[in-house]
Write a structure and sequence with these properties.
Radius of gyration: 26 Å
Strand content: 15-25%
Largest sheet: 8 strands, mixed
Strand order of the largest sheet: 15-16-14-13-12-11-10-17
Distance between the termini: 50 Å
Number of strands: 17
Helix content: 40-55%
Length: 603
């Protein structure tokens, strides 16, 4: 919804909130239901109502539990029955500097200041520990905005007695806790308040009259940022930034002005602005965002512009280059198809408003920010939170390299007439076995990101996955695939719940980057072996249809499963007898993780 994209009008959002909500609920899009508990140290009703808009727009259908005013501590340590019955899938602790109770005084000794810091931190750690032990779900905690006044002036920022220094140290302690605890995340209102303007953000009248810890006009910015973090936790991070070139990555038209005539570098303010934007894009790429070119251009001209000596981005930084005279919406659809992604994984950045409108109309799943003035390009992408990164795995950091290797595989495939011979030529090796603690964050991430090859589309939090990893009633398998072009990382996850002589497949998913390489057969072979070792005679499979996973609707029959039933919703249920099962995969050499017991040994 355009009204909810940066730069949005906060007063319009607040004024038209009911109408916007109604329009979102009536747009017919499928949404992921999520239960979110908001425990507040201030009035949170307007924050929740506004955050709902941004979550609905992001494809999440939220159901909220809201604590009474100022009851965050009590609800966390002594959860009321209503909260226990609610069973949240995420808890958001909305506290601010207004909730700090042990401020240092100028007369305090250094030891007294340290004791107050420890006491304040201890209060919050008690909240987090209690929530984690009770609900086993992700926890989001605001850090602290700076106080809106400074008794000591500039000294307030470094003197141990200064409130500015005290909140900075608390924020550092919160950050350290997040670094040490999976499933705990910081919502950075220290940054948000500075970006909005601290003097307006911390309007004392809003607190004194209504107990709002931030002014009404700041609520949409707050809600947008919080929703970006929540949607990223549940797999809503965009994966690709597709970029126009002329007047987007550099000033001028390379085909008309020549490489020497385009503006990029340090020569003047305009050239520096394009250089700064390229620097931002380069940093996004380093965080795992895939880059693509989508430009109406001759390819030779496009590549020469990307080789400009003053530019930061090079042709090899881009996973896909579409520089031709096709309509850009078609090129974007082709980019998504080549990367085995859905169009909603894309963000398209183009300075031309006409091109943006065509893409919005023809490819509604893609995000298309307004790019007005090169000095605003970074904010247009950054403030919308499409590339929010609540976690960063090694696979994330190597994603560009992995997709570049995929391009090499595609080039090799073109040289083979027989597909099985091509697969054998890849010299694929898989590690398939029980979950390892090292890979649990990536395994959890996959459950929230994989949509196309995901038979039940169940989502899991890290605490939930940690519990499953210790549950002997499960057969758990992760699959890691390498070949002669590189390491694809952890690409597949299977969960089967054992009941007597049968096992129910609760989860079967695979990353889109290894589709059509028979990894699903290798996983099936490993699963069948684990099942038989535990006396399981029958596998039961379930396909729950969504708008995104139609590609796997025929997976079970292709494996030889027999359909046992079909629901009115289109969900199908299947069974496979393991008597006489013979391995299916002929092109991948699979082995268990070294030095680890497997599920069969545990069972």
């Amino acid at each position: 919804m355009r009204e909810l994209e940066y730069p949005f009008d906060p007063s319009q959002i607040l004024r038209r909130r009911k109408a916007l909500r109604r329009a979102l609920l009536e747009d017919g899009r499928p949404r992921l239901p999520k239960k979110i508990a908001v425990l507040g140290g201030s009035t949170t009703s307007d924050i929740i109502k506004t955050m709902e808009l941004f979550l609905l727009d992001a494809g999440i259908q939220p159901e909220f539990y809201e604590s009474e005013y100022g009851q965050f501590y009590q609800d966390a340590l002594f959860p009321p029955q209503q909260l226990l019955d609610f069973q949240p899938e995420l808890v958001f602790v909305h506290t601010t500097s207004r909730n700090i109770t042990h401020w240092p005084q100028l007369a305090d000794s250094p030891q007294a200041v340290e004791e107050k810091l420890a006491e304040e931190l201890g209060k919050f750690r008690a909240v987090w520990d209690s929530l984690a032990d009770t609900f086993h779900c992700p926890i989001i905690q605001n850090n602290f905005e700076k106080p809106f006044y400074r008794v000591l002036g500039s000294r307030d920022g470094w003197d141990p007695h200064g409130r500015g220094q005290f909140t900075a140290r608390l924020n550092q302690a919160f950050a350290a806790f997040a670094q040490e605890h999976e499933g705990f995340y910081i919502h950075d209102i220290d940054y948000l308040s500075a970006d909005f303007g601290l003097r307006r953000w911390a309007d004392p009248a809003c607190w004194n009259l209504y107990k709002y810890a931030l002014c009404l006009e700041a609520i949409p910015a707050f809600a947008s940022a919080a929703a970006s973090l929540i949607k990223a936790l549940f797999g809503g991070r965009k994966k690709v930034l597709a970029l126009d070139l002329d007047n987007t990555l550099w000033g001028g038209v390379v085909g008309d002005d020549g490489v020497d005539g385009i503006e990029i570098g340090q020569e003047n303010g305009v050239a520096q602005s394009y250089y700064e934007f390229q620097s931002y894009v380069k940093e996004l790429s380093a965080s795992g965002v895939l880059l693509a070119v989508c430009s109406k251009n001759d390819e030779d001209n496009a590549l020469s512009g990307l080789r400009h000596p003053e530019g930061l981005l090079r042709p090899e930084d881009f996973t896909v280059v579409k520089a031709n005279w096709e309509n850009k919406d078609r090129n974007l659809a082709a980019i998504a198809q080549e990367l085995n992604l859905l169009p909603e994984s894309l963000v398209f950045a183009d300075d031309n408003p006409a091109e943006r409108e065509i893409v919005r109309a023809q490819l509604p799943g893609a995000a298309v920010p307004d790019m007005e003035g090169v000095e605003n390009y970074i904010a247009a992408i950054d403030r919308n939170g499409w590339f929010e990164a609540p976690s960063l795995s090694q696979d994330d950091l190597r994603r560009g390299e992995m997709y570049q290797a995929n391009a090499q595989r595609a080039a090799q495939q073109a040289r083979f007439g027989d597909y099985q011979e091509y697969l054998k030529s890849l010299e694929m090796q898989a590690v398939i076995g029980d979950f390892l603690p090292l890979y649990l964050p990536r395994i959890t991430q996959l459950t929230n990101k994989s949509n196309q090859f995901n038979l039940t589309t169940r989502r899991y939090t890290l605490p939930q996955m940690e519990q499953i990893a210790q549950d002997p009633s499960y057969i758990r398998l992760f699959g890691k695939l390498t070949d002669k072009f590189g390491d694809n990382g952890v690409v597949s996850v299977v969960l089967a719940h054992v009941e007597g002589h049968a096992a129910d497949l609760e989860l079967w998913l695979m990353s889109c980057r290894v589709l059509k390489r028979d990894m699903e057969l290798a996983m099936l072979d490993a699963l069948a072996e684990q099942c038989r070792a535990r006396g399981v005679q029958v596998l039961r499979g379930h396909y729950l249809p969504t708008a995104k996973n139609t590609m796997v609707k025929d997976l079970y029959p292709s494996f030889g499963f027999a359909k046992t039933s079909e629901d009115p919703s289109g969900a199908t249920h299947w069974e496979l007898s393991l008597a006489g099962y013979a391995p299916r995969c002929q092109v991948i050499a699979a082995a268990p993780p070294e030095g680890r017991e497997n599920n069969a040994e545990k069972g």
